[in-house]
Amino acid sequence: MLGLIGRIRRLGRVAEPAPPPPERSPAAVGLGGSVQVRHVDAGSCNGCEIEIGQAFGPVYDAERYGARLVASPRHADALLVTGPVTRNMAEPLRRTYEAVPEPRRVVAVGDCARNCGVFAGAYGVAGAVADVVPVDVQVPGCPPAPEAIVAVVRGLTGR
Ligand code: SF4
Question: Which of 112, 114, 116, 118, when mutated, tests ligand 1's pocket best, judged by the most ligand atoms within 8 Å of its CB?
Answer without folding.
Answer: 112
